[in-house]
Amino acid sequence: MVVISHWIACFWSFLALCQAKTFGPGLGTQANWISYWYNSNYVAGGINPIGWENDIDRYGLSLFWAIQSLTSIGYGNVSPVTTAEYYFGNILMLISGIFWAFVIGHLVSIVEFINKHHVQYKIRMEEANDMLSTFSPQSSSDGEFDIGDSRIIRRRIRRYITSQYEKSRPARNDFSNTVTLDDAYPALGTLSLELKKLSSLHLIRHYLEMVPYLSSKFLSPEEQSRIAFSSKILEFAEGEAFAKHPVYGRGIIFVTKGCCISKKSTKLRNSIGFNNCDKPIGGDDVLVEDEFMAGESYRLHFISFSQCVFIPRGVVIEILAEN
User: Fold this and answer.
1) What are phi and psi of 276, to 5 degrees?
2) C-alpha 207: how far from its chain's center?
3) Does the global pTM surpass 0.85?
């Protein structure tokens, strides 16, 4: 926004120069936006855009017009006079209108995305209320078949819809940069359970094959799909560190975007390595029980924005115990 305003201000001043052929005293005698402003708004001791030496005042006045045009404020004290200035002003207003429509549209989309679960809940509850309004006023039995009190059935249906809404809300935890595959790939939520498992496997299988005991050599597609479906997507900003997930504990990490420096400390030695997308992190340690990891620590330091696939240790141990 600042850079765009700067270049518009520079071109607005340049337009006056092209018409008057000078920034000197002749600028105030030729038809242009500066002479119009000077004759109607200039106050002695105030800003003076006329004169080669007054380039700062001239730029400030141009920048003032550029910002008020971009923000659609339009005080009216600086306005076009010549044909070229009017055409430039028209083009700028059209571009500004498109820009703000784009910004407002995206803000509305963000708000809609944030509230999508609540909106879906309200729609389902309204649909249920329409259905419940057609129920018989009160029914306890119909011949030999007991259909129950309609008032109790209404309450049960509303409680069920509310409980489904609570379950579908995104989980909140202390590690807010953690999302499930469903959140990372919304299309998964529209698929059947079988297609969801297959899609999850195709998304994560490349990383599973990097870990020998999770590869297709030892695990069936069904077992791999269960691990893939339980995987999480983590995002880290530059300078962040990671040792253990506060909810899922230890696990295997694959850096899919960005890079990090891993530091492993043991009782005997310390080791430092550079990690990117070519190998898993923590693949060996995940097989070791927590009590045997007391004297060791594993810490990742991210040196750029990074995205990682995280497989919780609990899921790995559960699948291997069944295998």
Assistant:
1) -135, -140
2) 25
3) no
Q: 174 to each of 94, 179, 188, 247, 253, how far by Cα in Å?
A: 45, 12, 25, 8, 19
Distance of CA 289 to the CA centre of its chain: 36
Amino acid letter for position 144: E
Residue (of 239, 281, 289, 279) closest to 264 by Cα position: 281
- Cα(252)–Cα(258) distance, rounded to whole angstroms? 17
Give me the residues paired with residue 263 across strands.
272, 299
Query: Quick one: angle between helices 313-322 and 221-229, nearest 10?
Result: 160
Enter the tokens of residue 252. 């295997």
Tokens of 128: 């249920």
Q: For residues 168 and 108, what is the distance between their CA atoms, to the nearest angstrom?
A: 22
> 193-239: per-residue pLDDT in tens?
888 888 888 888 889 999 999 999 999 989 999 999 899 999 888 88
Please, what sign has the CA dihedral across residues 199, 202, 204, 208? positive
194: which residues sit within 8 A by CB, 6+ positions away?
A: none
Q: What's the CA gap between 61 and 48, in Å, rounded?
A: 9
Cβ atoms 233, 308 nearer than 8 A: yes
Token output for 46: 């105030």
Whether residue 207 contacts residue 277, with contact meaning beta carbons closer than 8 Å, is answered with no
Q: Cα(92)–Cα(105) distance, rounded to whole angstroms?
A: 20
pLDDT (tens digit per residue) in 42-55: 888 888 999 899 88
